[in-house]
Amino acid sequence: MKKPIVVCGIDTDVGKSVVTGLLARHLMDQGKVVITQKPVQTGCEDRPEDLLVHRKFMGTGWLAPDEQGLTCSYCFPFPASPHLAAERAGTEIDPVRLDTATDTLTGQVDQLIIEAAGGLLVPLTRQLLLLDYLQSRSFPLILVTTPRLGSINHTLLCLEAIKHRNMQLLGLVYNVHGNDHKPEIVSDSLQIFREALGRYGFPEKVVLLPDIKESRSVNWEALATDSDQM
Q: Given this structure, which CATH class describes domain 5-228?
């Protein structure tokens, strides 16, 4: 059974949902059966917003597993870290429930792509960090970063944490969407990220967004090929 790929971010609001949807669309264009999952969504009272973004890029609309709750085990209205949003809803996130949904979906498709909640070290519960859970499942990761101020520090801290835990990183997605990024910062941060990947012993692969040619064919293929070798 092929392992799910997890799309993580250096922080919230860095483009994880778009990346997840684009990667799913790329694999679907290759004839693969693909579904995405957002195990925990906060700040949402109806259908999970990030799943709707995935489905938009995939061109599928709302799916049966979405309706069954398999693609989002927990959806909380309070916009906060998963542990606090769960507490405000009078419950606690159960990793066994996450496992059950993920394993069910994995057995139904060629590739499951999971969008993580927030950054790598957000608490799922008072005792369990997101990275703790991902490490326990040995999921391969894709890390989404940006050129905004603070991203170098956040990216290098994420790479340090992933390396320290001996986890698999397939590559980075460098989201340069928007017109407010200074070109010199964009290019310098990209160079630092490439060098850091090599220094930590990770594949020196970076997908640039938005770049339709690269994001929909060339660079996605490199990440997907690596995931096929797990």
A: alpha beta
Mean pLDDT for the chain? 92
2, 38, 56, 163: which is the annotated catalytic residue? 38
CA distance 124 to 133: 9
Catalytic-residue membership of 38? yes
Domain spans of the chain, in order of start: 5-228
Helix locations, the chain, DSSP H: 16-29, 49-58, 64-67, 82-88, 95-106, 130-137, 151-164, 183-199, 212-213, 219-228
| Torsional class of 73: left (φ above 0), alpha (ψ -120 to 50), beta (otherwise) | alpha
pLDDT tens, residue by residue, 66-119 = 999 999 999 999 999 999 999 999 999 999 999 999 999 999 999 999 999 999
